[in-house]
Write a sequence for this structure.
């Protein structure tokens, strides 16, 4: 009996989207942008692998779906980052050891953190630094599902007028996934859940069977399907879509009203490296030494992992009760057991919400003992009988629209990128080898991360710098191509600085032939 026809159980589909922009600065000592990666390896990716192994040992299939962006996949595979991760881990443990001597009150919290990082480092070395391979092994034995996303994670609705660029991004995602995992991806994550009518043709052209959309893409349409956003749907073009359930998602997603905001949980925003001014390489103090609990509005308490663990157990029980209650409410409306699709940034689990991996482990383990709820992977529902729906534009950003990625702060940048995409489209058929690096620069410039960071004011200076760097490089190379004055040394230097998408030439050849 397939999952699709087991109609007596509520289905819970947990989708974790793992993505970081491509960052690399070998001349700097543990630069902040690289530290983002190393923190997530220790706090998110390794714990997700570890909890999967523990569940499997208990004869429980983890059954979550993981989307891995090509930029993150590249970094997880390159030895450069493996070496730097180990350097970061030792630096952090040394800092924590030093702080233990200066602040005896924090001894227990620091001791826990040293043990945590040491364990992460040991696990990292036990898998030879190959986190992507570890996820791949879980995928091959059917424990989890993997899906891909666009090459550099652009917000697709902004580039709907540039079909070559959209195909380039999608084809890169498919190619990088297939090259690593030796299997063509069936699912495709739309960056920021950014949907517009017409994106289906590019996905279907690249053999994508399904994607995920925000609930508003369904609920704000002219005709709402009988199953609402609680069951898989398909577009008129034939693309299968899984609508998000925002209500259950927000119980986890919201840092204010959701589970991650509990006062006993680890405080994400305070880095104890500030208490060690003598240890600030490259004037960078944010290495991720997190020893405080969220606490209340006054003095921060030191983190107590045992108290946090007790809260996790309570919240898992509360969440399962919420699933059951919502399932009863929804079933009365749609006359069938619902499918709840809960997509999150993977980095929420462990990095932002330190206790997230334990929550996920206990959630899956508890549900496995029940007969009214079932954790399933998205691909296991592809054979469902589903309604055809006409979706509307949407995202999971602020107000569920496009304003986070297109507003007064970033409008000029987007318009400049569009100008270069137009020139790139005209030059594409020249078969000039320099187009390969031009394509990389345009793709790196189009990462939705830069627009998000500029719009929200979070590390906006770095985002602006990276965008301008790639735009300038792309414009320089386009000038070379148009004037037939190719500077190979410049182009080679650019690739050496950001060595990504080595086989992009094959994709450009396919674009020309279409």
């Amino acid at each position: 009996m397939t999952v699709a026809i087991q109609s007596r159980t509520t289905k819970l589909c947990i989708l974790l989207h793992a993505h970081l922009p491509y960052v690399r600065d070998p001349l700097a000592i543990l630069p902040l942008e690289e530290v983002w990666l190393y923190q997530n390896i220790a706090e998110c990716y390794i714990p997700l692998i570890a909890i999967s192994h523990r569940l499997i040992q208990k004869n429980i299939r983890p059954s979550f779906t993981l989307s891995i962006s090509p930029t993150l996949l590249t970094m997880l595979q390159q030895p450069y980052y493996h070496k730097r991760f180990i350097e970061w881990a030792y630096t952090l443990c040394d800092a924590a050891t030093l702080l233990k001597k200066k602040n005896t009150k924090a001894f227990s919290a620091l001791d826990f953190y040293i043990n945590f990082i040491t364990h992460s480092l040991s696990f990292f070395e036990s898998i030879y630094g190959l986190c992507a391979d570890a996820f791949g092994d879980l995928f091959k034995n059917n424990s989890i599902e993997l899906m891909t996303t666009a090459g550099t994670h652009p917000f697709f609705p902004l580039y709907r007028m540039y079909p070559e660029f959209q195909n380039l991004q999608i084809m890169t995602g498919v190619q990088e996934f297939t090259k690593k995992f030796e299997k063509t991806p069936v699912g495709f994550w739309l960056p920021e859940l950014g949907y517009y009518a017409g994106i289906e043709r590019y996905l279907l052209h690249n053999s994508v069977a399904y994607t995920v959309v925000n609930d508003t893409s369904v609920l704000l349409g002219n005709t709402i399907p009988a199953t609402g956003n609680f069951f898989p749907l398909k577009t008129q073009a034939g693309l299968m879509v899984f609508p998000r359930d925002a209500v259950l998602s927000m119980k986890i997603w919201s840092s204010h009203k959701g589970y991650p905001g509990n006062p006993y949980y680890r405080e994400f925003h305070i880095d104890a490296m500030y208490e060690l001014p003598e240890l600030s390489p490259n004037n960078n103090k944010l290495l991720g030494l997190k020893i405080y609990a969220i606490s209340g509005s006054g003095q921060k308490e030191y983190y107590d992992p045992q108290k946090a663990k007790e809260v996790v157990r309570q919240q898992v029980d509360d969440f399962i009760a919420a699933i059951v209650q919502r399932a009863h409410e929804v079933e009365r409306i749609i006359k069938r057991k619902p499918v709840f699709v809960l997509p999150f940034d993977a980095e929420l689990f462990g990095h932002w919400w330190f206790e997230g991996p334990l929550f996920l482990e206990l959630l899956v383990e508890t549900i496995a003992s029940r007969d009214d709820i079932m954790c399933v992977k998205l691909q296991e529902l592809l054979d469902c009988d589903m309604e055809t729906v006409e979706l509307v534009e949407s995202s999971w950003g602020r107000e569920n629209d496009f304003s986070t990625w297109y507003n007064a702060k970033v409008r000029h940048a987007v318009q400049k990128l569009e100008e270069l995409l137009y020139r790139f489209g005209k030059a594409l058929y020249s078969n000039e080898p320099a187009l390969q690096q031009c394509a990389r620069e345009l793709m790196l410039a189009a990462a939705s991360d830069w627009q998000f960071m500029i719009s929200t004011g979070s590390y906006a200076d770095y985002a602006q710098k990276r965008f301008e760097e790639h735009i300038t490089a792309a414009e320089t190379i386009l000038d070379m191509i148009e004037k037939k004055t190719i500077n190979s040394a410049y182009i080679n230097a650019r690739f050496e600085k950001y060595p990504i998408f080595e086989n992009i030439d094959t994709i450009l050849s396919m674009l020309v032939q279409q």
Notes: Residues 1-5 have pLDDT under 50 and may be disordered.
